[in-house]
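Worked example 3 (structure in, sequence out).
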């Protein structure tokens, strides 16, 4: 094999390697390419995710507001209960005093 044949053989081998590389790149690009339908689906999913996150944020805000309202209502109810219990205790004490007074008046006559 002389020098010219060697150069030609090397050039052919390099050209075949280039062609194989280009074909492999084209084949991989062809199978991994994202279609317009897939991009549309991804955009639709992203929009739905965004809407779901907004709905979740609104629900969290509503729940926090509702919890604050219920806590306030519970505090008011507890205060009313304490006031009613104090009034009942005072009424029992007055009733006991009246019974004692009536007993004293009965025994005095």
């Amino acid at each position: 094999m002389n020098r010219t044949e060697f150069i030609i053989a090397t050039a052919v081998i390099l050209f075949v390697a280039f062609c194989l590389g280009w074909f492999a790149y084209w084949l991989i690009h062809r199978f991994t390419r994202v279609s317009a339908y897939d991009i549309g689906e991804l955009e639709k999913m992203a929009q739905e995710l965004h809407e779901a996150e907004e709905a979740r944020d609104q629900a969290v805000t509503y729940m926090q507001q509702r919890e604050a309202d219920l806590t306030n209502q519970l505090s008011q109810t507890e205060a009313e209960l304490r006031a009613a219990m104090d009034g009942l205790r005072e009424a029992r004490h007055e009733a006991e005093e009246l019974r004692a007074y009536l007993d004293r008046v009965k025994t005095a006559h």
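Notes: The chain has two domains: 1-33, 36-108. The longest helix spans residues 36-108.
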